[in-house]
Amino acid sequence: MKILVKTLLLPGILLLALPGWADDAGQRLNVALKQMDNLSTEFKQTLLDEDKNVVQQSSGTLDLQRPGKFAWHYTEPFEQRIIADGSELWIYDVELDQVTVKPMDEGLANAPIMILMKQADISEQFEISEVGQRKFLYWVELLPHSGDLEYTHIYIGIDGDSVRAMELQDQFGQSTQIVFENLRTGVVHDPATFRFVPPPGVDVYGVGG
User: Fold this and answer.
1) How far is 109 from 103, CA to CA, in rounded Å?
2) For 109-127, what is the mean pLDDT?
3) Phi and psi, residue 148, nearest 5°
4) What is the pLDDT of residue 110?
5) What pLDDT, in 10s, does the model give residues 43-68?
6) How far apart are CA 176 and CA 167, in angstroms?
7) With 90 as the cut, is the pLDDT of residue 25 above it?
8) I need a labelling partner for 159 at 20 to 30 A (CA). Which of 30, 99, 132, 144 fits?
């Protein structure tokens, strides 16, 4: 997935994390992640190349209900819906009139969205260290213990006890940055938010439903 980050971009030189800071960073991150049950937020997303040039910008909304459900809706520049209903992952490309469905375990096992879905301590999967305060957010760095993830470095920006931004860097030097705006927690979602029924005439690939 892809952000508009004005002053939120991480600088080239990061603070060196000491062991005590790492403990604080992990605690702070886990506190922030625990607040993310039943949230609704808008997002702005930007994909940058290895030279930090903007490749693509997009925006939309995210609804999340833990455990196991989310609806990620891109509205700009092209409409796309990504819905996890607790057992299956549906990806609906509106422009192509096409739906792909697969088991959640297969489609999301190594996806960064799963960080936001976690209710347990994530230190078993990541080495967590402090980057420090940058502009308006407190940043932590996550380095995956396994090489299965698409991204080699993940940065999470925290404001108080809320996750407000993410930066995902891959092995090719590209980065995806996401800023969350108008974030609300404790939302009572309509069950239909996480239910997807393919529109008539749409091509469906995969096995689901």
Assistant:
1) 10
2) 73
3) -80, -25
4) 59
5) 999 999 998 999 999 999 999 998 88
6) 6
7) no
8) 144
Instruction: Give the whole-angstrom CA distance, residue 30 versus residue 2.
Output: 24
Per the omega criterion (within 30 degrees of 0), is the bond before 67 cis? yes
For the question of whether the overall pTM of this predicted structure is more than 0.90, the answer is no
The C-alpha atoms of residue 7 and residue 54 are separated, in whole angstroms, by: 15
* pLDDT value for 36: 82
User: How many Cβ atoms sit within 10 Å of the Cβ of residue 120?
Assistant: 10
33 residue type, one letter: L
Q: What is the pLDDT of residue 14?
A: 36
- Helix (H) or strand (E) holding 19, with range, is helix 19-34
Provide the strand spans (E) within the chain: 39-48, 54-65, 69-76, 80-85, 88-93, 98-103, 126-134, 137-144, 151-159, 162-170, 175-184, 203-206
Q: How sure is the predictor about 119, in pLDDT bands with cuts at 50, 70 and 90?
A: low
CA distance 90 to 28: 32
Q: Token pair 């260290």 is at which residue? A: 129
CA 118, CA 149: separation in Å to the nearest integer? Answer: 16
What string of DSSP letters covers 118-165?
--S-GGGTEEEEEEEEETTEEEEEEEESSS-SSEEEEEEEEETTEEEE
Helix (H, G, I), strand (E, B) or coil at 183: strand
Structure tokens at 88: 């299956």
